[in-house]
Design brief:
Blueprint lengths: L3 H14 L22 E5 L2 E4 L4 E4 L2 H5 L8 H13 L10 H12 L6 E5 L2 H20 L5 E5 L8 H5 L4 H4 L9 E4 L13 H19 L4 E6 L15 H11 L3 E5 L23 E4 L11 E5 L1 H6 L22 H15 L2 H19 L6 E6 L4 E8 L4 E2 L2 H13 L2 E2 L1 E2 L10 E4 L7 H19 L1
Helix pairs in contact: 3-11, 4-11, 8-9, 12-14, 13-14
The protein binds pyridoxal-5'-phosphate.
The site of pyridoxal-5'-phosphate has 16 residues, from helix 5.
């Protein structure tokens, strides 16, 4: 840890020079006397310490669902260190040892998939898939089958194309004009029902709504459908029974490529290696980022099956017939070196099993809070990826006010527990508390997170 005087300098440097992500800086720059910038100094297991030495249990894996194997993993650090000394970087058409070995390992967890394209961030991985879809449209369909469908409330990243595929309106507002050729389909959150049906019937209706959009647009214009397996920042939306099989059927019927965005769900978060594996889906593209190396190094991947890959090598005499794309830092070796160790930890410590067991436990614990707090309208989740939607009125399901939801998050933080909430991104619907503890969480950890939520709800809502 840094000494006290060093840390106060760090806080000043942060205040003066860092432009933080997703922050209205007025509350951080001293204009607000309550402004209390937080520097996280150290982490071990499920816990982090800030500049004042305050301990927090981390219920959201590094703030945004990332540190799946927890903090302080020396074997990841050592593997990265050794690799950096041996060879930090070489790109272009040359390979690297960890790049090849991690691809092999990753594909062994993804039956039906075969190729890994390395990149740096979830947004960029999604951009790669969008570009592949567009290039396939040009190669095979004269450019016509180029539209990409995305879903209301899903998020795929922060670039202009990803925002064009974004189902969270606040994130895109004021950044237009957007990229043409992206078309929205309805979300599948049964709690906020759009059809008067339940369970599997609801799931099938929500999937059929995608087919209606395809028919309205013209199936010969639609190249791909991009979905999160379980919607993350849009409110932790677990799809209803029947949804995914029907989605797959529709994609096959209209020859539409299926792109699954596993940036949050990937690498264990929901209790399987990938979220789509709960549903028996066979995707054409799978993108992933956060949990791939648990934040120990920047790495993201766009994984395809051989059907997609083959389309880029079917005519070697055509000078345009290859994926004309590069990602400079997709050649860093630290990413796959960290990712190999990350995956080995999940296997050796049986963290998928733990995620399923602890996820079920946490779901039960959060549901039991519903008896005490009328403000909890709905609890949902898969593995260690859970949400509790807060409402002003259970009967009407009117969402709880965003500032009250944020007050619950702040109360937990003040009491040493980090939880999250859908953050401003869905006007009118920023009312879901979010939980994604590391896959190493124990019952004790979960009890602490749930009891902090319980106390915060009492203090904020009475
Ligand atoms: N896709 C999903 C589902 C996400 O939640 C995110 C980020 O939160 C992204 C893509 C973008 O990833 P990145 O921030 O690494 O660009």
């Amino acid at each position: 840890k840094l000494r006290d005087n060093d840390i106060s300098h760090v806080v000043e440097a942060d205040r003066a020079h860092v432009w933080h992500h997703l922050i209205q800086h007025a509350a951080w720059t001293g204009d607000d006397p309550k402004a209390d910038p937080r520097i996280i100094v150290e982490g071990r297991g499920m816990r982090v310490w800030d500049q004042k030495g305050r301990e927090h249990i981390d219920g959201v894996s590094g703030g945004v669902w990332t540190v799946n194997v927890g903090y302080g993993r020396e074997r990841i650090a050592n593997a990265v260190r050794d690799q950096l000394i041996q060879l930090p970087y070489f790109a272009g058409s040359a390979g690297s040892i960890p790049g090849a070995l991690f691809s092999e390992k990753l594909i062994s967890k993804m039956p039906g998939m075969s190729r890994v394209y390395y990149t740096n961030s979830g947004s960029e991985a999604n951009e790669k898939a969008f570009k592949m879809v567009r290039q396939i449209a040009h190669k095979r369909y004269g450019g016509k089958k180029h539209k990409i469908l995305y879903r209301d409330r899903d998020y795929h990243g922060t670039t202009i194309a990803c925002l064009s595929a974004g189902g969270q309106d606040e994130r895109g507002a004021q950044y237009g004009p957007y990229t043409p050729g992206f078309v929205r389909v309805p979300h599948c959150l049964e709690y906020r029902a759009q059809w008067d049906l339940e369970g599997e019937d609801y799931g099938i209706a929500a999937a059929n709504a995608i087919e209606e959009v395809i028919l309205a647009e013209g199936p010969d214009t639609v190249g791909a459908l991009c979905l999160e397996p379980v919607t993350a920042g849009g409110g932790v939306i677990v799809p209803p029974e029947g949804y995914w099989p029907r989605v797959q059927e529709i994609c096959r019927k209209y020859d539409i490529l299926l792109h699954i965005d596993e940036v949050v769900c990937g690498v264990g978060r929901t209790g399987t290696w990938f979220g789509y594996q709960h549903y028996g889906v066979e995707p054409d593209f799978v993108t992933m980022a956060k949990g791939v190396a648990s934040g120990y190094a920047a790495i993201a991947c766009c994984v395809t099956n051989e059907r997609v890959f083959d389309l880029f090598k079917d005519d070697a005499t055509d000078p345009m017939n290859y994926f004309r794309d590069i990602s400079t830092f997709g050649g860093c070796t630290a990413g796959p070196a960290a990712a190999l160790e990350n995956m080995a930890i999940i296997e050796e410590e049986n963290l998928l099993e733990n995620t399923n067991a602890m996820g079920d436990y946490m779901l039960d614990q959060l549901r039991s809070l519903q008896d005490k707090h009328a403000v909890i309208g709905h609890v949902r989740g898969k593995g260690l990826f859970l949400g509790a939607e807060l409402v002003a009125d259970r009967a009407t399901k009117e969402p709880a006010a965003e500032k009250m939801v944020q007050a619950v998050v702040a109360d937990c933080m003040a009491n040493g527990v980090v939880i999250g909430a859908t953050n401003r991104s869905l006007p009118g619907f920023n009312n879901t508390l979010c939980y994604s503890p590391a896959l190493i969480a124990t019952k004790d950890d979960i009890d602490q997170i749930v009891s902090a939520t319980d106390a915060a709800l009492t203090r904020v809502f009475g």
